[in-house]
């Protein structure tokens, strides 16, 4: 059974991917900014700073979850490996027609391995925001 929070996350990603993609070429500086963004959101989750974590979400996500409380409830209920990871290792950044997707390998609070695929969206000011996250169990040993 899919948890409601995960369903909303998948729907948010589907909405983000369905939007027309502008050219989002990723340079080395962008790669560092994307890792810092995701790392910063995970750090905000760890310290229960919902406002900071929410600020890193793209406008489409903030439309689906219009308050910090709703966003954090979704994360706590459906994304515990992202909310409280034991370990975090950045994998490849894949450029897709819809924009970049950053793979992150996590060990969840349950000790199991997960892969989080973060979709990202460049903002008008050139910064990046997280436009979705698909979380899957990873059959490889935990990191």
Describe the structure.
A hairpin with a 5-residue loop joins strand 3 and strand 4 (128-137). This protein has helices spanning 4-18, 28-46, 50-55, 59-64, 68-78, 80-83; strands at 87-96, 99-107, 113-122, 128-137. It has six helices and four strands. The radius of gyration is 14 Å and the shape is globular. The chain has 143 residues and is an alpha+beta fold.
> Oligomerization state of this entry?
single chain
The helix/strand series, from N terminus to C terminus, equals HHHHHHEEEE
**Largest pleated sheet:** 4 strands, antiparallel
CA-CA gap between termini: 26 Å
Determine the number of helices (DSSP H or I, runs of at least 4 residues). Answer: 6
Query: Which secondary-structure class do the elements indicate?
Result: alpha+beta
What low-confidence regions span 5 or more consecutive residues with pLDDT below 50? 13-22
Q: What's the overall geometry?
A: globular
Which strand order do you get reading across the main beta sheet?
1-2-3-4
Percent helix? 40-55%
Query: Proportion of β residues?
Result: 25-35%
- Any idea what the radius of gyration is? 14 Å
- The overall pLDDT average reads 87
Extended strand count: 4
List the helices and strands and how they pair.
Blueprint (H helix, E strand, L loop, with lengths): L3 H15 L9 H19 L3 H6 L3 H6 L3 H11 L1 H4 L3 E10 L2 E9 L5 E10 L5 E10 L6
Antiparallel strand pairs: 1-2, 2-3, 3-4
Helix pairs in contact: 1-5
């Amino acid at each position: 059974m899919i948890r409601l929070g995960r369903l909303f996350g998948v729907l948010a990603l589907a909405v983000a991917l369905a939007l027309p993609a502008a050219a989002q070429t990723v340079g080395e500086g962008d790669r560092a900014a994307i890792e810092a963004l995701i790392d910063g959101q995970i750090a905000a989750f760890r310290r229960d700073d919902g406002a900071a974590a929410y600020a890193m979400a793209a406008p489409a996500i903030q439309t689906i979850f219009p308050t910090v409380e709703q966003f954090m409830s979704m994360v706590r209920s459906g994304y515990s490996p992202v909310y409280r990871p034991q370990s975090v290792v950045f994998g490849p950044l894949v450029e897709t027609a819809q924009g970049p997707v950053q793979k992150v390998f996590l060990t969840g609070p349950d000790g199991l391995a997960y892969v989080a695929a973060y979709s990202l969206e460049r903002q008008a000011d050139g910064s990046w925001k997280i436009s979705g996250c698909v979380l899957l169990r990873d059959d490889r040993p935990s990191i």
